[in-house]
Amino acid sequence: MNVSAHSRLFGFRFTGPTLAAVLMTAGCASATKSRAPRVPVAVARAESRSVPLTLAATGTVEPIQTAAVGSQVGGVVTRVAFREGDEVGQGQVLFELDPRPFRAALEQAEATLQKDRAQYESARLEADRAAKLVEQNLISQSEWDQDRATAEAAAASVRADSAVVITARLNLQYASIEAPISGKTGQLMVHVGNLIKAATSDPLVVINQIHPVRVHFTVPVGDVPLVQRYRDNHPMVEVRIPDSDTTVRRGALVFVDNAVDATTGTLLLKGEFENRDRALVPGQFVDVQLVLDVQKNKVVVPAPAVSRGQQGAFVYVLNADSTVAPRPVQVERSTDELAVLAGGVEPGETVVTDGQLRLSPGAKVLVRAAKGGTP
């Protein structure tokens, strides 16, 4: 059937130029369909490097020592020898109470002691004379026993008076309240003129030693075997203050609890830090990285390069002809930035880190943001 007959069969009539135009348009459409557009992707190279073995947690800063300063005696505050928030040293005087009542009590106790010592000395001499007289049968045994008992009673009074003097002297010393530890003072709870009670549970001020300082944090029970395996290697603890500068502060792991908390299923650990700049404040929350070990010659790729499918984890590897091929990988562990691979990719190979959702095996890609290596 010729073209004219074919056109008549379908009710159309084509002239020569018109038919040529139709055929050219059909050919261009066929060629366009055969050329699929390249998919823009971002890539990075797999690398072999030393990778720290870490556990992440949220920790809380705590002072290495804390002391709630109270008073062992009652009295009126006559002097506050510091300003709240000051750094104080151990033994530094913080408060002074009115010493006059304590000084008067000491003088009274000392006077009583002197009186009883004189009475004891007289009773002792009398007992010595009675002992000689009883040997000569000049007095009865009962009289000597009485003199001896009087002397012993006087000696007991002297010992009791001595204890009262020591107590009175201590109370006078306690009228000056000293810092039991070195550290930073907190809010001042009393002022000059306040009457404070003896041995009350309400502190006058709280002192926290924050140089050095500790950070306590917990790890889940599943990570306890890792902690036990590497604890003798003196693991390092790194902390960052959230929403602040990126400064990493490094300390040492100094405490591992001896039991897992049954209610939370976690194990308590503590790290110690110099904190010379006083940036870590007790009660503050921090991001913690427990560095258990540094593993060498590990193959790593950016974490976004790893995708998950029905057959497990895989990455798209970039070929020399700008096509991609999926490659199964074994992920040993991963962080927010890196995935540590136990197999599947060799160092130096290029993997796709962005744009995987639009890829298929053999797809042509256009590298829009090549990175020199893993982060």
Strand-helix topology:
Layout: H1 3-9, H2 16-34, E1 39-45, E2 47-69, E3 75-80, E4 87-88, E5 93-97, H3 100-135, H4 141-174, E6 176-178, E7 183-185, E8 195-196, E9 205-220, H5 224-230, E10 236-240, E11 249-256, E12 266-273, E13 285-302, E14 307-309, E15 312-318, E16 324-328, E17 330-334, E18 338-343, E19 350-354, E20 365-370
Helix pairs in contact: 3-4
Question: In words, what does this structure look like?
Answer:
- It is a single chain.
- The protein is elongated, with a radius of gyration of 44 Å.
- Mean pLDDT is 88; it is low at 1-33.
- With 375 residues, it is an alpha+beta fold.
- It has helices at residues 3-9, 16-34, 100-135, 141-174, 224-230; strands at residues 39-45, 47-69, 75-80, 87-88, 93-97, 176-178, 183-185, 195-196, 205-220, 236-240, 249-256, 266-273, 285-302, 307-309, 312-318, 324-328, 330-334, 338-343, 350-354, 365-370.
- Among the domains are: 39-50 and 297-370, Beta Barrel (conserved putative lor/sdh protein from methanococcus maripaludis s2 fold); 55-63 and 206-295, Efflux pump adaptor protein, beta barrel domain (Elongation Factor Tu (Ef-tu), domain 3, Beta Barrel), CATH 2.40.30.170; 100-174, Orthogonal Bundle (Helix Hairpins), CATH 1.10.287.
- It contains five helices and 20 strands.
Gist of the model:
The chain is α+β, with helices and mostly antiparallel strands and 375 residues long.
Q: Helix coverage percent of residues?
A: 25-40%
- If you average the pLDDT, what whole number results? 88
* Beta-strand proportion: 35-45%
**Low-pLDDT residue spans:** 1-33
What's the N-to-C terminus distance? Answer: 68 Å
CATH superfamily of the domain at 55-63 and 206-295: Efflux pump adaptor protein, beta barrel domain
Secondary-structure element series: HHEEEEEHHEEEEHEEEEEEEEEEE
CATH class of the domain at 55-63 and 206-295: Mainly Beta
At the fold tier of CATH, the topology name of the domain at 55-63 and 206-295 is: Elongation Factor Tu (Ef-tu), domain 3
In total, the number of strands is 20
Shape: elongated
Number of helices: 5
Radius of gyration, in Å, reads: 44 Å
Strand order of the largest sheet: 2-9-12-11-10-13
Major sheet: size, sense and barrel closure? 6 strands, antiparallel, barrel
